[in-house]
UniProtKB/TrEMBL annotation:
It is a single-pass type I membrane protein. One of its GO terms (cellular component) is melanosome membrane. Its EC number is 1.14.18.1. The chain crosses the membrane at residues 474-498. GO terms for biological process: melanin biosynthetic process; pigmentation. Residues 202-219, 383-394 form the Tyrosinase copper-binding domain. This is Tyrosinase. Residues 1-18 form the signal peptide. It is found in: Melanosome membrane.
Length: 529
């Protein structure tokens, strides 16, 4: 625990990436619908005097949405973030942040001109010291208040359209738990009515880009509160695992000796309190989660419904998923067939890619297997295994991007479920990020995965796979073309040989002169063909 104590002494509180900036959570900003805080470096809004950015109107996508959400004007998250703000900082160059005070992912330095590439590693490849430091960082985040962000405890209507702000403080770790809840919560329709078929982070094309941003922001926040600029999230490679091998006191917390639903008291995660897990209570009260503590982390891995999730995912299932060439398909939701996204998310069978919502595969399988806090979507980030799991899911997404090399246009521009079109801003992030901005290789965002770097042969194989896949799809045509070509060649060769044989049988006195004639050229062309 010495690392934990040192962390508090060394904590460096700088501008962060998250939800509602504290500087904009006030009556004036809400009524003006403007969130353009000054940058400390020059005191100007968005660092405009230093040419970091400027306060500009938000340009919202006008592309049509899918039919899954048949309402308009009833949810604060529609056309994010326009209900709260329609002017925010637009940063220039490699600058980023709610006040353009930071660098884009993958850049560093005082002017954000230095490229950085960090490597995420397998948690079981960390040294004991590295692993203990990671655990201490998690605990530090759970006990460090966010200096720059607050959470909303009421809807915009409940805030009287901005004249009665409803926000509260929150610690760094729970800030991300709350953001995951807020993106996936139900729509409150008034009275006791809710609309459940809505999710700005799951069940649609944005699932993978959204969680990619989420992890980058979480990683970035840990780097700042610890002062450790080289920190990266480790991943748990759960392929073919027999059980939850990270569920030990040495790692993410073992099983309680007398209550199998709780964590071992030997793990400091056993003292953690969860938030945002009582969705039915919030719905009945037409209220938002206000981050009140709701009890300890629950986890009982392997004692889940085996008819839904019989085991953890296999390597073969991951490989089949990676072979799928379509990122998205059909309705672009959890009913999509032959969709890489839907298969990896777990709503389609990982052996056929056919939608089957009665089963949980790949990503979803791990959540269900944990049989506790991880198994309820809105509150799943309470369990710290969440970040290990989603880092590995992101690595599978990265493998697919490298294998198939999709252009940006592969990501749907229109008709996806609400919030998931390419140009939609992701809920509930401020600064603003569009879905399509993170549909690109991780190296362009400043990070890589250790197991994707080695050996070199794997990279060569990944390069060849898309071409081999295309060849497989047209092999019948290629074989047919080869057979027809062979037949034509054989017939022509036979005709030419027959002509030559007949010519040799003609006396030299009556043979025509072919040298440098038009007929000679024709015969040569036909022979070559």
């Amino acid at each position: 625990m010495s690392l934990f104590a040192m962390g508090f002494l060394l904590v460096i509180l700088q501008p962060s990436s998250g939800q509602f900036p504290r500087a904009c959570a006030n009556t004036q900003s809400l009524l003006r619908k403007e969130c353009c805080p000054p940058w400390d470096g020059d005191g100007s809004p968005c660092g405009e005097l230093s040419r970091r950015g400027s306060c500009q109107n938000i340009l919202l996508s006008q592309a049509p949405l899918g039919p899954q959400f048949p309402f308009s004007g009833v949810d604060d998250r529609e056309d994010w973030p326009s209900i709260f703000y329609n002017r925010t900082c637009k940063c220039e160059g490699n600058f980023m942040g709610f006040n353009c005070g930071e660098c884009k992912f993958g850049f560093s330095g005082p002017n954000c001109t230095e490229r950085r590439l960090r490597t995420r590693r397998n948690i079981f490849q960390l040294t004991t010291g590295e692993k203990d430091k990671f655990l201490a960082y998690l605990n530090l985040a759970k006990n460090t208040p966010s200096q720059d962000y607050v959470i909303a405890t009421g809807t915009y209507t409940q805030m009287n359209n901005g004249s009665n702000p409803m926000f509260r403080n929150i610690n760094v770790y729970d800030l991300f738990v709350w953001m995951h809840y807020y993106a996936s919560r139900d729509t409150l329709l008034g009275g006791s009515s809710v609309w459940r078929d809505i999710d700005f982070a799951h069940e649609a094309p944005g699932f993978l880009p959204w969680h990619r941003v989420f992890l980058l922001m979480w990683e970035h926040e840990i780097q700042k509160i610890t002062g450790d600029e080289n920190f990266t999230i480790p991943y748990w490679d759960w392929r073919d695992a027999e059980d939850c091998v990270v569920c030990t006191d040495e790692y993410m917390g073992g099983r309680h000796p007398t209550n199998p639903n709780l964590l071992s008291p030997a793990s400091f995660f056993s003292s953690w309190q969860v938030i945002c897990t009582r969705s039915e209570e919030y719905n009945s009260q037409q209220a938002l989660c206000n981050a009140t503590s709701e009890g300890p982390i629950l986890r009982n891995p392997g004692n889940n419904d085996k008819s839904r999730t019989p085991r953890l995912p296999s390597s073969a299932e991951v490989e089949f998923c990676l072979s799928l060439t379509q990122y998205e398909s059909g309705s672009m939701d959890k009913m999509a067939n032959y969709s890489f996204r839907n298969t990896l998310e777990g709503f389609a069978d990982p052996r056929t890619a056919i939608s089957n919502i009665s089963q949980s595969g790949l990503h979803n399988a791990l959540h269900i297997y944990m049989n506790g806090s991880m198994s309820q979507v809105q509150g799943s980030a309470n369990d710290p295994i969440f970040v290990l799991h989603h880092a590995f899911v992101d690595s599978i997404f990265e493998r697919w991007l490298r294998r198939h090399r999709p252009v940006l246009e592969v990501y749907p521009a229109a008709n996806a479920p609400i919030g998931h079109n390419r140009e939609n801003y992701m809920v509930p992030f401020i600064p603003l990020y569009r879905n399509g901005e993170f549909f690109k290789p991780s190296r362009e965002l400043g990070y890589d995965y250790e197991y994707l770097q080695e050996p070199a042969l794997d990279s060569f194989q990944e390069f060849l796979i898309p071409y081999l896949e295309q060849a497989r799809q047209i092999w019948a045509w290629l074989v047919g073309a080869a057979v027809i070509g062979g037949v034509i060649t054989a017939v022509l060769t036979g005709l030419i040989l027959a002509c030559r044989k007949k010519r040799r049988g003609t006396s030299s006195e009556i043979q025509p002169l072919l040298t440098e004639s038009e007929d000679y050229n024709n015969i040569s062309y036909q022979s070559n063909f």
